[in-house]
Design a protein that fits this description.
- The chain is 81% helix and 0% strand.
- It is built from 13 helices and no strands.
- The protein has helices at residues 17-24, 28-33, 35-47, 51-71, 73-87, 93-123, 127-148, 153-172, 177-189, 194-217, 222-236, 242-265, 268-301.
């Protein structure tokens, strides 16, 4: 799931937490129903919201989560059902590319949807709040370096192997020693330079801080602020420079090859385990959709203000 894990940088106004919760937590309904509160807490932890900003964020998150419930959950359920069905058979590299694209489209829909409210928030920031974001980013980067970038190359390979093995075991169930060794060999044969990933992480963070500062210092309008954020989203994944784009797409290829490889080395029982796991997510999402219909009926019954 590392392909879809959001960087801790206010990436999608923290609403992307909802999608990740759906893909990484067995208590889908509970986490999703708390998503607006968790997102507001995350934003406040990074910025330090004042009362007016807090009201803006509460209203925006309520609106966006309602939109996500009523307009996005069905599409996500369909994608997960397709994954679940494929796990019962076999997943090809072509399937991996397709599913990656579908999840990515879902994430970008969220990003563009929240852009106007993100612009309003950025327009209201004080210099001290931008400093708060920078401090939190620095803390997160320290953790990233400590976790992913040991000095020795062999240790970096070990860390990546452990992470991949852990996540594969979480989805497919307990792996055999032979499977773990195959994962290690595949990672060694298909290396990823974590230093380049870290540099890309820094690029995104620096560009975000620059946008915040531009919006506040130049007192940009709502439209000008939205344009800056939209441009940021456009180049977020691959960067602006040719070498950045080539390196990012190469890492993407390696990641999809790894995902395909994992499905090839798992046995029928492990695929069944993964399929049943995904099936529970689909069930929970469908329950959320039914709850949304009931909530919509209650909302429509309320007297208009």
């Amino acid at each position: 799931m590392s392909l879809f894990k959001p960087l801790q940088t206010l990436k999608w106004l923290a609403i992307g937490i909802a999608t990740i919760s759906l893909l990484s937590c067995s208590a889908v309904r509970f986490v999703y129903n708390q998503g607006d509160a968790l997102s507001r807490w995350w934003i406040d932890d990074h910025i330090g919201l004042n009362q007016e900003q807090d009201s803006l964020i509460r209203e925006a998150l309520d609106r966006h989560f309602w939109w996500h419930r009523t307009a996005q959950l069905q599409g996500l359920a369909i994608t997960l059902e397709e994954i679940q069905q494929k796990l019962n058979k076999s997943i090809t590299r072509r399937d991996v590319v397709y599913f990656y694209g579908e999840i990515k489209k879902h994430s970008y829909a969220i990003a563009y949807k929240v852009t106007p409210d993100l612009a309003r928030l950025f327009m209201s920031l004080e210099p001290s709040q931008i400093e708060n974001v920078q401090k939190r980013i620095a803390q997160n980067n320290e953790k990233f370096v400590k976790e992913w970038l040991p000095k020795e190359k062999s240790e970096q390979i070990k860390v990546r192997t452990e992470k991949v093995t852990q996540r594969a075991g979480w989805l497919f169930g307990k792996l055999s020693k032979d499977q773990e060794e195959k994962i290690k060999a595949h990672i060694i044969a298909n290396p990823i330079d974590m230093h380049l990933i870290y540099q890309d992480r820094l690029r995104r963070q620096q560009e975000l801080i620059a946008i915040m500062k531009d919006i506040t210092k130049k007192k940009l309008t709502q439209k000008e602020s939205e344009n800056l954020i939209t441009d940021y989203i456009k180049y977020f994944e691959y960067g602006r420079l040719k070498e950045q784009q080539e390196a990012a797409k190469k890492r993407e290829e390696i990641a999809m090859e790894l995902a395909s490889f994992l499905t090839q080395i798992t046995n029928d029982d492990q695929k069944k385990y993964a399929s049943e796991r995904v099936e529970t997510w689909v069930s929970d999402i469908n329950s959320l959709i039914k709850e949304s219909s009931a909530l919509a009926a209650k909302r429509s019954a309320l007297p208009s203000r």
